[in-house]
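Possible regression after last week's pipeline update?

I re-ran a chain I had predicted before the update to compare outputs. Posting the input and the new output here so someone can diff against the archived version. Not blocking, just want to make sure nothing changed silently.
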Amino acid sequence: MVFQPNPLQVQVQIPSKMQIQRSTAGSQVPFCQVDRKMLNSWSHIEPQTFRVRGKNYLRDKKKEHASNNAAYYPFGVDVFLSKRKIDHIARFVELPIVDFYSAEVPSILVVNVQIPLYPASFFKSEIDGEGISFVLYFKLSDDYSKKLSSQFQDNWRRILDDELENVKGFPIDTLVPCRERLKILGRIVNIDDLQLSVPERKLMHAYNGKPVLSRPQHEFYQGENYIEIDLDMHSFSFISRKGFEAFNDRLKDCILDFGLTIQGNRTEELPEEILCCVRLNCIDYMNYHTLELIPESPSH
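New output (post-update):
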């Protein structure tokens, strides 16, 4: 697959009469082979390293290694600091032009992980402020239609179309968005390097690698040939915020594997398959710059 520079203008207009500098997608964080050690980098990882709901999960509750195929594969990572959350960040970067195009699904997937840097407050409902965006860029697999199951492909199309599905419940069935089944897979690979206290280590082993549904703290944005998913940690619960807040300073020491899947709730949707995955190698957000809004130049 060949990427070519996108011949778009250097800056983009936004509704607030402000402009934001555009950078090439993936220009902030360099790539590193997974078997080498390089700080502030990203690497490819095999989808099969994640454990997901297995074929018989509804009966035996067992998880198994995913198949070694993902719908999308990484091609870049950016880290941006910002004074406020930046939603739909793909508007403000130069995405590549891809030579592999699908009429059914977008060729590029952008995942914008929004992490707050201001203190969580139990009594305040503040969900915006200074933070980081870890922006992960993925391209559609050349073998998407061949290697991913037809059921997975159908579920992904339904998520893209923001369809509703019927969920059996008591006393009545309800309609819920298919997007509520998007699930985050995350794990820290190098726990032993982090010099954790005994309580921290127990907590880490209890929750490390445990999947979590991204709802309701996610938003979807679609553009020309791309889909962006914003994962808004600013809106996490107070307890979750406090837990992550205590861990922020250790991000620079972590090798973190990140992935997304679509939760399988019926037999025909199992085993689960990987939507995308990437490894982040000890990224220190203090090395990166604030993405600034700048006043628009007056017209003459």
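Follow-up from reviewer: compared with the archived run. DSSP finds five helices and 21 strands in the chain. Marking as no regression found.
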